[in-house]
Amino acid sequence: MAEQTPQSQGLEPPSRQSVFGFLRTWGESSAPPTFTATLIAAQHLQPFQFLPIVFAPLMLFSTYMNLNGYKIDAAGANAAWSGLYVVLAQRRKRPFVQKWGARGLVRGGTMGLCAVNVAAGGFVYATGRRSAELDNV
After folding, report:
1. What pLDDT, on a 0 to 100 scale, did the predictor assign at position 6?
2. pTM confidence score
3. Which pLDDT score is estimated for 130?
């Protein structure tokens, strides 16, 4: 009996994507700002903190711009607001024990997601072609 491989079954092997391809895909997606806004809201609604919670609507506005066809501008705005959030969040120091609780893990996840948003959004904004974006709108 012949050995069955994924190719003989009609399945394609997973494609390998470069780091730049991953950054472009992540930066042009509307999902990361939405996830970031969700995590920010989860952290700062209870107890209510005005300054950090302002970032959630700004992230959702990046999603709105992205869905309306302004992917490059949305990536730049998302990178800028994510970077500012990380800078402000790093100023708040937590004791070591609180870093490993539920709130600390959500905070770390938010800051990590913001860091990836800065890298991906900055890459898309720096390498994006406006002429192609304006033709699609």
Report:
1. 57
2. 0.80
3. 77
d(CA 62, CA 72): 10
DSSP letter (8 states) at residue 1: -
Q: In what helix (H) or strand (E) does residue 5 lie, and over which residues does it extend?
A: none
pLDDT in tens, 9-38: 666 666 777 889 989 999 999 999 999 999
Measured in degrees and rounded to the nearest 5, phi and psi for residue 46 equal -130, 105
pLDDT in tens, 84-112: 999 998 887 767 666 778 888 888 999 99
Tokens of 25: 């895909």
H, E, C per residue of 80-126: HHHHHHHHHHHHCCCCHHHHHCHHHHHHHHHHHHHHHHHHHHHHHHH
Task: Look at residues 69, 82, 83, 77 and name the one whose alpha carbon lies nearest to residue 125.
Answer: 77
Measured CA angle at 113 (ends 107, 115), to 5 deg: 105
Helices (H), ranges, 18-54: 19-28, 31-44, 50-53
Backbone φ and ψ for 119, nearest 5 degrees, come out as -65, -50
Report how far residue 82's alpha carbon sits from residue 78's, in angstroms, rounded to the nearest whole number: 6
